[in-house]
Automatic annotation (TrEMBL):
<dbReference type="InterPro" id="IPR050360">
    <property type="entry name" value="MFS_Sugar_Transporters"/>
</dbReference>
<feature type="transmembrane region" description="Helical">
    <location>
        <begin position="252"/>
        <end position="274"/>
    </location>
</feature>
<protein>
    <submittedName>
        <fullName>MFS transporter</fullName>
    </submittedName>
</protein>
<feature type="transmembrane region" description="Helical">
    <location>
        <begin position="145"/>
        <end position="167"/>
    </location>
</feature>
<keyword id="KW-1133">Transmembrane helix</keyword>
<comment type="similarity">
    <text>Belongs to the major facilitator superfamily. Sugar transporter (TC 2.A.1.1) family.</text>
</comment>
<keyword id="KW-0813">Transport</keyword>
<feature type="transmembrane region" description="Helical">
    <location>
        <begin position="286"/>
        <end position="309"/>
    </location>
</feature>
<feature type="transmembrane region" description="Helical">
    <location>
        <begin position="372"/>
        <end position="396"/>
    </location>
</feature>
<feature type="transmembrane region" description="Helical">
    <location>
        <begin position="21"/>
        <end position="44"/>
    </location>
</feature>
<dbReference type="InterPro" id="IPR005828">
    <property type="entry name" value="MFS_sugar_transport-like"/>
</dbReference>
<feature type="domain" description="Major facilitator superfamily (MFS) profile">
    <location>
        <begin position="21"/>
        <end position="431"/>
    </location>
</feature>
<dbReference type="InterPro" id="IPR005829">
    <property type="entry name" value="Sugar_transporter_CS"/>
</dbReference>
<keyword id="KW-0812">Transmembrane</keyword>
<feature type="transmembrane region" description="Helical">
    <location>
        <begin position="110"/>
        <end position="133"/>
    </location>
</feature>
<feature type="transmembrane region" description="Helical">
    <location>
        <begin position="316"/>
        <end position="335"/>
    </location>
</feature>
<feature type="transmembrane region" description="Helical">
    <location>
        <begin position="56"/>
        <end position="78"/>
    </location>
</feature>
Amino acid sequence: MVQGKKNLVEDAKFSPFHMKLTIYSSGGPFLDGYILSIIAMALTQITPQLHLNATWSGLIGASALIGIFIGGFFGYVTDKLGRQLMYTIDFIILIVASILQFWIQTGWELFIIRLILGISIGADYPIATSLLAEFSPKKHRGMMLGVTLVAYYVGSTVAYVVGQLMLSIGPDAWRWMLASSAVPAVILVLLRMGTPESPRWLLQHGRPEEAEQVLKQVYGEQASLQDITMPGVSKTKTSYWKLFSGGYLKRTLYVGLFYMAAVAPLFAMLTFGPEMLTSYHLFDGAGGYGAAIISALFLIGCIPALFFVNKLGRRMMIIVSFAGMTVGILLLGIFPHGPVLLILLGFIVYAIFSGGPNVMEWLAPNELFPTAVRGTAVGITTCISRFGAVFGTYLFPWGMKHFGIGPTMLVGAAVTFGGLLVCIALAPETTNKSLNAASSVSSRSRGRVTG
């Protein structure tokens, strides 16, 4: 790109194409929230019918998270084979697995099928977010990638409401609940058809003519390859090792650890929302509408973060957010039998401030790593985060049973405070940088690479 000349990709206005791509790419997070939350409602019927103990309840609650961990490794595949090819294949698998849940008869069958569902969702994270990031203008990148996390909480909230309404079907309502995720998945597969391949990926893989054709199709005839390249920057190869060497090691640790600290207590709360509310005597205990309100609070928390991600900057926003989350969850841990208003305050503070890390979970890895390893980075940092999410979800019912809700929440507060320390030590600033500039590291740390 010529210095001082407007970049038709990075400086582009938010177009109908960007709107559609944001909506389509948000489908995976929507289904993630839906699938991980609908199980909370379904377990109220599954547990007595399939005679599940606390161990099996925890395993089934965590099964999709384990699958997401495995699916994260498909980030390497999307860097190798392309974003567009995998953009619909993973949802076809999700549709089949969703429908199969209707006929399960045992706990281990449900565990296996939800593991497959998780793999499909985990694969979609690097596929969809990499594609979205590589088409996003720098001014709108934070908003576009942040919206995908808003979609997660929309899916979660919808799941609780749908689950509560479906309870009236009868004792087999849980089968319809679990299979219902096939409906939005089918719609999204149809919508995603015809999405163009990322021009950055095409250029990275020696297909410049196709890359330029896509650029002209999306941004107009004046767009060229100069709009996605940066002088003095060389290409790099797709490799897991790139993420753990030179300047990228610090970035991998930052994203993986803050992501893990954010989702460990959060996923446990969403998966076992009805049981948690029973312990706090809120919203009539196991009612799905009460859990939907909690989920909606997390959704609302993402809204201000979408605006502050540019105004405050990436680094300041995530540090302030983790500090607020720590205070909120501490209130829940210290006063488990306190006044209802105090408990509600704890939930509200934690949920509102969680918006910062939520918005950054996919924005950070997509900005901090170059095209050749962008999908791999999203996948690996998702895998790292799921260690915390899996253990948090698996141990949450065990902790409530043996220690009670207060001490269990205090453990969550310790994890959240750890995330705060990680952000203070490692969070970089990428606000208002082009994707190429944000994803490059200094030549002293490992040599320059493409964005």
